């Protein structure tokens, strides 16, 4: 079975950090976009991460239900079955960007469900969950993260947190493009003081360095990936000075001494290749890819419709061509164009050809 279990997921993340590459984390909204992402990972011979946003989880449950927990559980069950037939890659499932107002109605119920699974000797539905407390003061953000980290540890999952704010808009959550988009080097020490460096449970951290969700024209987004290196360096120095005596080499779970954090890159659409490469060198092991793959999927649909408009529409009393308006015809094209963009992401992040199986 190639759905990562908790040990395999930890191995994936550690291998990426040691090898200075990252996994594309592909947001999906349907079984079709899931299949497109898996096709891309397999073609690239790359392990990877599939993730659901709060809106994606609701959408998957259907317009009449709009139930995030139902959508998440149903999706994870379907995904596990399909992924089990991909013998050449390992894939993890993740829930993305859970803002404070969604915590009690989405991620906490999922964690409770997963803790019950673990108590029965089963693997959890998802391998990691993101808590997005970026709209809160840092002390509140980390207080909630500390509670969630304990729950994640009990559920055998990894927590992801966000420190600072990502600009732009995703699922109705917006942030302005301003100085709040840049973490401070000392934020790493603050995080380590609250959550430890592995000994209290595994987590990934999205320190912000100018990240913005969505697609923007060149020049608007000012990324400073060197900030990630400064965060890592400042915290590593504090560990070396004995400020975190519990953070032994075992607790940091295979981390190189200069990279105490597993880092995440949000809002990467439109980033320059050299900016992405530097972020990965600084310890990014997961990069969210959503806007670009959304466009790639829809571009495949649009190309089909524009090329076959007189077949997909019943024009001037004609009957069209069923083979052209059959959703499977344009769906396959959309899956193909999205899969190609996933392959591109794997190549850019260095995970292509490095599947652990």
Automatic annotation (TrEMBL):
What's the record's note on cofactor binding? Binds 2 Zn(2+) ions per subunit. One is catalytic and the other provides a structural contribution.
Q: Which family does it belong to?
A: Belongs to the class II fructose-bisphosphate aldolase family.
Please name the Pfam families in this protein's record.
F_bP_aldolase
Chain positions recorded as Zn(2+) 1 binding sites? 97, 213, 266
Q: What is this protein called?
A: Fructose-bisphosphate aldolase
Q: Which GO terms describe its biological process?
A: glycolytic process
Q: Which cofactor does it need?
A: Zn(2+)
Q: Name one GO cellular component term.
A: cytosol
Any idea which GO molecular function terms this record carries?
fructose-bisphosphate aldolase activity; zinc ion binding
Q: Where does dihydroxyacetone phosphate bind?
A: 214, 267-269, 288-291
Catalytic positions? 96 (proton donor)
Cite the entry's keywords alphabetically.
Answer: Glycolysis, Lyase, Metal-binding, Zinc
Pathway listed for it is: Carbohydrate degradation; glycolysis; D-glyceraldehyde 3-phosphate and glycerone phosphate from D-glucose: step 4/4
Q: Which reaction does it catalyse?
A: beta-D-fructose 1,6-bisphosphate = D-glyceraldehyde 3-phosphate + dihydroxyacetone phosphate
Residues annotated as binding Zn(2+) 2: 132, 162
Query: Does the record bear Ribosomal protein in its keywords?
Result: no
Protein species of origin: Bombiscardovia coagulans
**Function as written in the Swiss-Prot or TrEMBL entry:** Catalyzes the aldol condensation of dihydroxyacetone phosphate (DHAP or glycerone-phosphate) with glyceraldehyde 3-phosphate (G3P) to form fructose 1,6-bisphosphate (FBP) in gluconeogenesis and the reverse reaction in glycolysis.
Has UniProt tagged this entry with the keyword Zinc?
yes
EC number(s) in its UniProt entry? 4.1.2.13
